[in-house]
Amino acid sequence: MRIRRVSLPGQMTRRLDGQVRNNAGGYAYLIDPKQQLDRFLILGTEGGTYYVGEPRLTLENAVNAIDLLTQEPRDVLSRAAEISWSGRAYKNDPAIFLLAIAASYGGREVRQLVPEYFDRIVRTGSHLLAFVDYASELRGWGRGLRRLVGQWYDRRDLRELAYQLTKYQNRRGWTHRDILRVAHPKPSTPERSALFRYITQRTLDADLLPAEVSEYLEAIGQLRSRQLSEADAARLIREHRLPREVVPTEYLRSAEVWRALLEEMPMTAMLRNLATMTRLGAIGARGNKPDEWARMVIERLTDAERLQKARIHPLGVLAALVTYRSGSGARAKTAWTPIPAVVDALEEAYRVAFGNVLPTGKRIVLALDVSSSMGYWNVPGIAGLTCAFAAAAMATVTNAVEQNVRIVLFTEKLREASRRHFRNLESALELYRTVQFGATDCAQPMLWAMRHGVEADAFVVYTDNETWAGDVHPVEALWQYRERTGIPAKLVVVGMASTGFSIADPNDAGMLDVVGFDTAAPNAIADFIAAL
Fold this sequence. Notes:
Blueprint: E1 19-21, E2 27-30, H1 33-43, H2 54-71, H3 73-86, H4 93-105, H5 108-121, H6 125-138, H7 143-155, H8 158-167, E3 170-171, E4 174-175, H9 176-183, H10 190-201, H11 211-224, H12 230-240, H13 255-263, H14 267-272, H15 274-280, E5 285-286, E6 289-290, H16 292-301, H17 304-309, H18 314-326, H19 340-353, E7 364-369, H20 372-375, H21 387-401, E8 405-410, E9 414-417, H22 425-432, H23 444-452, E10 458-463, H24 474-485, E11 490-495, E12 501-502, E13 511-515, H25 521-530
Parallel strand pairs: 7-8, 7-10, 10-11, 11-13
Antiparallel strand pairs: 1-2, 2-12, 3-4, 5-6, 8-9
């Protein structure tokens, strides 16, 4: 029997020094451990990738974090705190997980540093519940963990603490009642002791609490009695600034109650509840004219200072926009008519959330990987939002500020897309729905530019770096482009997954890795390209 010889694509053979096999079987470069840490902190690992399951991806990043903590503990914790505090990541869970690793696997020096950064990362009751879940899984309860948790409860203003404990009631199977019973924090004042008793025993010692706190807790009790009219429930919510989480379900069917909640609603909660408020008529429009409640939403969405203060991440806005404009829920049989002015405000909020991005004036090719691994896998933590569409959404930011841009979509083949498809998120979404996914060849943008005589100062490639299908390695294609055109073109790789690979050669000063959906990414890209 004759065995047919099969030739592998060139990218599946190791031809260049420093290359390693990626998860798709092709060859790429390992990124620096600190770059991998940034990818983990900003992108997370929830859901894994097309090629790697979540447990393995999390383990790989955890091992990398432990190694770095052993070598440079202060730098690692400082980096996690900086990314968390500045809102550069969509979710805070990766930073919290890193903190739990430091508290669990770090040596004495590392563990002693944890309290210094704890409050910059663990800012809310929800964050504390997540930290306790991670830490208890990794190390169990010891004196150090009890002291750390107890100090978090003891340092907060009493009214703010009451809000945190009632708004964030449970997460990952943990409640604050559970934590207080396990940690046994020693309250520093009788007032704090009374609040702890309320949480653990549901006993309200109103005489021992400041009036503002006791009235807040009494208002929650009145709501839970379910004896109030919708008008009275709305009045209590306004008077005591009650969060949605303490409101019984039957009141959450009322537009009047939602309007009361909206007055003091945090920005993240507002984004998540736009559809509900529209469906119930809490916000609305007559024709194209939004009512006063919709105008309140629009004003907040377009307020750059408010967005920054609330740490609103572009991914959060993008997820809200995709859901809201669809007019129907994915899980429940619910429908609403999107208010056009709110959709426009979400578009504006998305751009604003990235900050003020300045144009470079350079010739740029934006190249979007629309292979199967990008098109069928979601952004970590956001159901229904694929990496391919997220990359297209990021491209709209650069497209909006640059004059000389060409945009291409590639798999193992390539096609150019009109810039008008990237004038806003809605147009990008419509284009994305026509894409046929395929294999991955990240050399295509440079090869296309050579074939068609396209002059480019920089190629910006949005990809998960799992290239394998081409005969020419991406860095070889860039080197060939530089040689043929005489242009010292740069390559920026925008990594859309928390893997340890990149198509960029770390030894080439004209190549840069940035983390996809880092709020600092567009300006980092612009600064790198402008320095030609």
